[in-house]
Specification:
This protein has eight helices and 19 strands. The protein is of the alpha/beta class. Among the domains are: about 80 residues, OB fold (Dihydrolipoamide Acetyltransferase, E2P) (Beta Barrel), CATH 2.40.50.140; about 210 residues, Rossmann fold (3-Layer(aba) Sandwich). The strands form four sheets. It has an eight-stranded mixed beta sheet, sandwiched between helices. The radius of gyration is 22 Å and the shape is globular. α1 runs parallel beside α8 and α3 packs across α4.
């Protein structure tokens, strides 16, 4: 990336949401909610127009106030009261995000918290399945799996709380500290941060005022004490200054990461994705001596997953545009004789492979590629280049179902087929879902 990893998803804290709310409230509509759309909002209709409504559940009847009527084809609205509740509606685990509060005072970042956990996962699976059908051209089923409690200490699996190891809070001009309200940049004062890991809850300065600050970052690494970083308008770090680092851990393996760099947010996510990648790599197609690749590799987490699965002699190159992450990847993978770390943009790196003298006959034939792009996905430029090099299989880790579905469609146009798919609830009480897919070269 100038930062590929940092574009991937909000690495810390609560979702900023969209544009500012309109100066004057719109009409209040009586809506029958039909389904959940990509992005976590529900879909209803009013006089033939689609209305995207927040804080509702399919099957409910709600009163919702229009907050954006600026488009001809659809409006946006906020639930202000539930007229007929779904049996899946529950009390929100975060009081400050409850539908009982005025929309402009609802904390953002927990937009599914009003939905029972099992139903949350069903709705996420529906969105993933629909996206793959519409954009990928495939019918695929994947239940969204909860994180194994064995790799997620402190997490309440029924409430979906206690899982965030990175949180960003914002500071209002008067010094108030809190998350942004959903879909706005208004800072909401809160008395708790239930989605945060207990270590972060213990140090979060939500009862203080911090005049002159702009944000507060909270990080709870696997090894070491939690850290609180107050951000100010003039903050900057010279390129010559060493970035502060932390240590993360998956099982017995440790990873050095820049404190401000990318690491999975859920306390159990890194272990979950490690196991999923190891499971989805087809051993019958895996060649340890091939030119195996870990693209958008960060600090080497998934390259390590492949190495641990198939042995320290595996040949694998991890590619990442963030030079700091690549430096850490080299150290984190130092015990693999066949591993190397390259700093490069993925599209340009693939161009270099394609320009090699033996590319026409060799390319990446026989290789396994782990592809873990930012939230926007790999996109046509990368998929076209990668498919032309003909790896035997691609294990694609995705944090956005629509981006995954689009890229699956692109791979299928190049003679690859979706062979396996798993999905994981790495963001409980939000609409986000993580998926891991295996695409294999068929023709």
């Amino acid at each position: 990336m100038a930062q590929d990893r940092r574009r991937r998803r909000p690495a810390r804290g609560h979702r900023r949401g969209g544009s500012a709310r309109p100066a004057a409230p719109g009409p209040v509509l009586d809506l029958e909610v039909e389904r959940i759309a990509h992005g976590g909002v529900a879909v209803a209709r009013h006089e033939g127009r689609v209305v995207f409504v927040a804080d509702a559940i399919p099957g409910e009847r709600v009163a919702a106030q229009v907050v954006d009527a600026g488009r001809e084809r659809f409006w946006r609205a906020e639930t202000i009261s539930v007229l007929r509740a779904s049996p899946d509606r529950r009390e929100h685990p975060w009081a400050e995000a409850s539908v009982d509060r005025a929309p402009e005072q609802r904390a953002g970042g927990a937009e599914f918290g009003h939905i029972a956990m099992a139903r949350q996962r069903e709705l996420k699976a529906d969105v993933l399945r629909d996206a793959l059908r519409r954009m990928g051209g495939v019918e695929a089923e994947a239940a969204v799996e909860p994180v194994d409690p064995a790799v997620a200490p402190g997490v309440d699996p029924e409430a979906g709380t206690g899982w965030r190891t990175r949180v960003r809070l914002h500071v209002a001009p008067d010094g108030t500290v809190g998350p942004y309200a959903a879909r706005s940049h208004t800072v909401v004062p809160v008395a708790s941060l239930p989605l945060a890991a207990p270590a972060i809850q213990a140090i979060a300065p939500i009862a203080r005022t911090l005049e002159g600050a702009t944000a507060v970052d909270l990080v709870a690494p696997a090894d070491g004490d939690p850290q609180l970083i107050v951000r100010s308008p003039g903050d900057h770090r010279s390129r010559r200054d060493a970035a502060p680092t932390i240590t993360e851990r998956v099982g017995e393996r440790r990873f050095t990461v820049d404190r401000d760099g990318f690491w999975q947010v859920h306390v159990g996510a890194a272990a979950t994705l490690t196991a999923a990648v190891q499971d989805l790599v087809d051993p019958d197609r895996f060649d340890p001596a091939a030119d195996n690749q870990d693209l958008y590799g960060g600090v080497g987490l998934l390259a390590a997953a492949v190495g641990d699965r198939f042995g320290s002699g595996v040949r694998i190159t991890t590619v990442e545009a963030d030079a700091g992450a690549t430096e850490h990847a080299g150290a984190n993978l130092a015990d693999w004789v066949g591993a190397r770390a390259v700093t490069a943009r993925v599209d340009r790196y693939l161009d270099e492979l394609a320009a090699a003298p033996d590319a026409a006959t060799r390319g990446l034939r026989g290789a396994t590629v782990v592809l873990d792009p930012p939230r926007s996905g790999a996109g046509r430029a990368v998929v076209d280049r990668l498919a032309a090099l003909r790896p035997a299989q691609v294990v694609y880790v995705a944090c956005d179902p629509v981006a995954l579905a689009r890229d699956v469609g692109l791979f299928r146009a190049h003679g690859y087929e979706l062979e396996a798919l798993r999905a994981f609830d790495l963001f409980p009480d939000t609409h986000h879902v993580e998926a891991v897919a295996r695409l294999a070269a068929i023709v």
